[in-house]
Amino acid sequence: MEHVADFDVKNIPCELTVALSILKSKDLHSLQSLISEIPSDFNWDRFLDLTIHHRIFPIVYPKLIDINKDIFPSSIFNQLKGLYEHNTLKMLYLSSVMKDVCNLFTQNNINTLVLKGPILGSDLYGDISLRTSGDLDVLVPIKELDKVNKLLEDLGYEKDDYIQTILGDWRWRHHHVTYIHPKTGVKLEIHWRLNPGPGREPSFKELWNRKRTENISKQPIYILGREDLFLFLVSHGARHGWSRLRWLLDIYQLSNKKLNWGVLTKLLVTYNYTQLGGQAILLNMVLLDMIPIKEMSEIARDSHARKIAKLTIYYLERMVNLHNEPVPLEIATYHKSYLFQIKSLKQRFFFVFSFLFPYPEDADVLPLPKKIHFLYFPLRPFLWIWRKSKKYPQLERD
Prior knowledge:
This protein is an alpha+beta fold.
């Protein structure tokens, strides 16, 4: 375990350390010994908050069912039980919605790959109740977006039109659009890319050719091949600083499946994600005691992977929620720097180069007729300086 000897995890909250120990426990005896040794002043409410924040309560609760209830607070156990049961019902409902949506798209000749949601509970954990999900994510060919939009609107979904675009930059700057059903509250993310750009990634055709079938209904559900799923999950988790342990657990579970590491290593190199694969493996070794096989160790030796793996400890030392606006300034500043540091040299080049492509905010500052929008290219540097000097409202991306 020489790979992880110098990781500083002493500032991770003790309540999260206990949760990690419960996740790693292999038998009832060791689990009961662990809990019985917890000091009396241990903050169990904080422990509960952290299991909820990190979305790991569906794994923690089943491990506690058979322990001696005299050594575990009944109020915490009952709350975990309630959360687990509620999540199970939610996953069953989302599974039903997922099947209906996939069937609808199939009937309309739209190839569909399910990325996340209850399907990951079934695929990675063998049980949809062991993983949480706030929404459904599916990937479709970009040419089918108009047809998908019409079908979802007919079902009552409303599109969240938060994407502003100019000169077609939405195709590569963004990667999904969100639909919400006003009556059921179900959120559905329709992807045309795995990740936001700029950056290379497998085409839909490639992903479709490597797809797997999950037979959880009469109609087959298509999901990413295992190697493509690893690529997707490490890029997604890394982009969010691995600020929820559930994402690392997904990688842990997936790594225990039958993966073609030769194919996976080639994918990581091709799409400049080797450092992210190594980051995920290192964090699993540090936090979940993963024992890597030879191919995993080789990826984890990447010096860039080691550096950015250490950067993510920051997110585990505090409860960071990047989805709730406004994000505290300290965290937003750190995360902005982190997102740049996790990129490969090639990704950094394309990221910086992408700033030369006009943003929708440029049109806000200087509205031009659509037929001469091409002028935003030479004007872009001047408009950027103007906005900065005048402090025009803008997104962090700029």
